[in-house]
Amino acid sequence: MFGDIARFLLNTLFTLFGAALLLRAWIQVVRMPPYNPVSNAVMQATNWLVLPLRKILPGGKIDWASIVAAFIASAVYVTLMVVLAGVDPTLMVPILLLVALLTVVKWALNLIIWVTILMALLSWLNPQSPAMPLLYQITAPFLDPLRRILPRLGGIDLSPILLFVIVQVLLMVVTRVAVSMTLFGI
Predict the structure, then answer these.
(1) Which InterPro entries does the entry mention (predicted)?
(2) Is residue 81 within 8 Å of residue 43, measured between CB atoms?
(3) How many Å separate Cα 106 from the centre of its chain?
(4) How far apart are CA 117 and CA 119, in angstroms?
(5) Domain residues for 112?
(6) Cα dist from 95 to 10, 102, 108, 180, 181, whole Å
(7) Whether 117 contacts 135, CB under 8 Å
(8) What are phi and psi of 55, to 5 degrees?
(9) What is the pLDDT along the chain (186 residues), one digit of tens a residue?
(10) Please, which residues bridge with residue 153 across strands?
């Protein structure tokens, strides 16, 4: 029972932190203003790891420091999960690094799902919400190509549903590959 609780807590903490790191990189790509409350909160929660890495890694359109920080967090997470499973992590370093990379992809896919769900719900419940422009800006790179393909049905935008299905399928594939590599769930 202790192992299950520890795995749940590690999964929750590292997934939230990894999502914040990836959201930080995503915010930079879509050029969200840094004074926005969401941007500000994400920056403050992740500065302790990203700012030292930024001294080593160059900036630019892609925030490599945040992405590398997400990979580091993922590697620590995967290592802790292996230790909790009772396996010596030094015996499987190359596999753990690959699983850590897949975990970052999994976090990114989950982030896309949750942001898209939040945007869809707010568009139905409170389309005038101050958060809507932010959510549209963040989801536009994923939804705009789908909107060009899907017709609008009486003003109903089906692109979030299609994105959700595509990302969910990708998430299943990534999870299956990660589980088959380690023989336990990450």
Answers:
(1) CCB3/YggT
(2) no
(3) 7
(4) 5
(5) 2-182
(6) 20, 10, 20, 11, 7
(7) no
(8) -70, -25
(9) 888 999 999 999 999 999 999 999 999 999 888 788 888 889 999 999 999 999 999 878 899 999 999 999 999 999 999 999 888 999 889 999 999 999 999 999 999 999 999 998 998 899 888 788 888 999 999 999 999 998 878 878 889 999 999 999 999 999 999 888 776 555
(10) 156
